[in-house]
């Protein structure tokens, strides 16, 4: 009996140590600075080293009624927030709920449907409208650093441009963020200044969801 109790005590101690090590590992990972590759960013803009949404979705879907809501935005104000979705189409639907619906951006918005599939986060940014030539805004980097998500960009200096109007939206996959309060920022790289900041609370999510 005594031996069984000793073994049980040792097992419990080892389990506690394992949990502590796992928590420390998660904390270390959360504090690691990550840079999102530019090639993973999806945009309505013309920046060459990003993925253009027309190519990702295909021409028919990229210009359907749903996507035209994004293309017809004429508000010059920039915007930035997080959404919670596994795939691009879920991120598009979730960002639509924030931009054109009544969904708050205080927490990462999911797709508006019963039991949406969740568990990965996207940064959604809108820099404004401008011509397609030259590229009016160029994304320099997207960084996840502890409790901050930072998109740095540069605006083109005034020069002759085409007379068309292009919206500059960006969908950036971040992976799963740990729970906590995040500061989401747009930063003008030339000025070294934060031009827009939003605080977003990432909360616990259901382990399983419905179909995307």
Note down, in words, how this protein is organized.
With 212 residues, this protein is of the alpha/beta class. The chain has two domains: 1-32; 35-202, no CATH class. 27% of the residues lie in helices and 33% in strands. The strands form two sheets. A six-stranded mixed beta sheet has the order 3-2-9-6-4-5. Strands 1-7-8-10-11 form a five-stranded mixed beta sheet, with no helix packed on it. It starts with a helix and ends in a 10-residue tail after the last strand. The model is unreliable at 18-30 (pLDDT under 50).
Task: Write a short abstract of this structure.
The chain is an alpha/beta fold and 212 residues long. The protein has helices at residues 2-30, 53-57, 59-62, 65-71, 88-100, and strands at residues 34-35, 42-43, 51-52, 79-84, 109-110, 121-130, 137-145, 148-155, 166-175, 180-188, 193-202. The radius of gyration is 21 Å and the shape is globular.
Largest sheet: 6 strands, mixed
Element pattern in H and E: HEEEHHHEHEEEEEEE
| Unreliable sequence segments | 18-30
Overall average pLDDT: 86
| Widest beta sheet: strand line-up | 3-2-9-6-4-5
The total count of strands amounts to 11
What share of residues are in beta strands? 25-35%
Helix content: 25-40%
Structure classification: alpha/beta
End-to-end separation in angstroms reads 53 Å
* Rg for CA atoms: 21 Å
**What form results from the Cα inertia axes?**
globular
Number of helices: 5
The total number of structural domains is 2
